[in-house]
Amino acid sequence: MYQTSSRPKRAKVLAMAGKGGTGKTTICALLIKYLVERGQTPVLAVDADANANLNELLGLSVETYIGELKDRMKTETPPGMTKRDYMEIYINRAIIEANGFDLVVMGQPEGPGCYCMANSILAEVMEGLAQSYRYILVDNEAGMEHLSRLNLRKIHILFVVSDPSSRGVLTAARIADLTKSLKVEVGHKVLIVNRMPNNLPARLEDQIQEVVKKTDLLFGGYVPASERIFQSEIQQESLLNLPTDTDVVQTTQQIFDKFFVTSQ
Ligand SMILES: Nc1ncnc2c1ncn2[C@@H]1O[C@H](COP(=O)(O)OP(=O)(O)OP(=O)(O)O)[C@@H](O)[C@H]1O
Ligand SMILES: [Mg+2]
C-alpha cells in the first residue's frame, strides 16, 4: 500500500496488462480519474499501445506520436543541435496537457532500420520525466514485450485485467508469471476481473481463488459489465466525466482504495 500524502522524488509506475479486449484501457482511464480526483497529481499517462485509443476515453486528441519523433530525429535534427536536445524538445511538445494529468502517445513501433540511439535517448528523457510526476500510468496492448521496450526500471503495481471466464483468469495467471522474465522489477500484481455479469458462477469464483493462491497475483476485485461504459463508448464521451455514483466508478474506486492511501 502506498502512502501518497507527500510527493515522492520519482514517479511510481503503474501499468496495465491482460489479454486483448479485456478492458485495460477502460480501467486505465478510470484509474487516471481516480488519481486526479484525489489530487494525486501530476500524473503522466503513457499510451504504449500501437493502436492508441486511451486519448479517446479521456476526450483528448493526439497530434504527435513519439514513434514519429524517432524517425524525425534521424533526418531533421538541425546542425548545431544534438539529437538528444532535439528529442527532449519535441517529446516535451508532444505531451498533451490536460486537467491534473498529461498524456504522451507512443504510436506505431519503429520500422526497419536502427533505432538504438533514438530508443536510448527516449529512455533517458522518460527517466528525466519520471522526476516531474507523482505517477506514471502505462496502458499497454496485450502481450508483455511492449512493457520491456519502455525501459522502465520498476513497475510498482501491474494491474492484470481479465474477462469473467476460466480461460481469461488462467491467462491472467500466465501473464503474471511471464513478468518474471522481463527485465523490469514488478512490485505488486493485481488481478481485476472486468465485465462481470450480475451473478458470479461459484465455479468461476473458486477458479479465481485458486489462481490467487497459486500465483503472486493479489485479488483486486470485480468490475461489473456496465451499460454506462457501453453508452459512453458509443457516444464517445470521456470517462473522466462519469458521475461518481456510476457502477464502474464505484467498484474501481473500492479496488484502488486497497492499493492507494489517499486523503479523500
Ligand atoms: N466494465 C465494462 N462494461 C462494459 N463495457 C466494457 C467494460 N470494460 C470495457 N468495456 C468495453 O469493452 C471494449 C474493450 O475495452 P478496452 O478497449 O478497455 O479493452 P483493452 O483491454 O484495452 O483492449 P485492447 O487489448 O484492444 O487494448 C470497449 O468497447 C469497452 O468500452
Ligand atoms: Mg487497450
How would you describe the overall organization of this protein?
This protein has 264 residues and is an alpha/beta fold. It has one domain (2-261): Rossmann fold. Helices cover 40% and strands 22% of the residues. The chain is built from ten helices and ten strands. It has helices at 24-37, 54-57, 66-76, 83-94, 116-129, 145-149, 166-178, 202-214, 227-235, 247-257, and strands spanning 2-3, 12-18, 43-47, 96-97, 101-105, 135-139, 154-162, 185-196, 217-224, 260-261. The strands form two sheets. Strands 4-5-3-6-2-7-8-9 form an eight-stranded mixed sheet, with helices on both faces. Strands 1-10 form a two-stranded parallel ribbon. Helix 8 (202-214) links the parallel strand 8 (185-196) and strand 9 (217-224). The radius of gyration is 19 Å and the shape is globular. The two termini are 16 Å apart. The model has no long low-confidence stretch (mean pLDDT 91). The structure holds adenosine-5'-triphosphate and magnesium ion (MG). Magnesium ion is lined by residues 24-25, 49, 139.
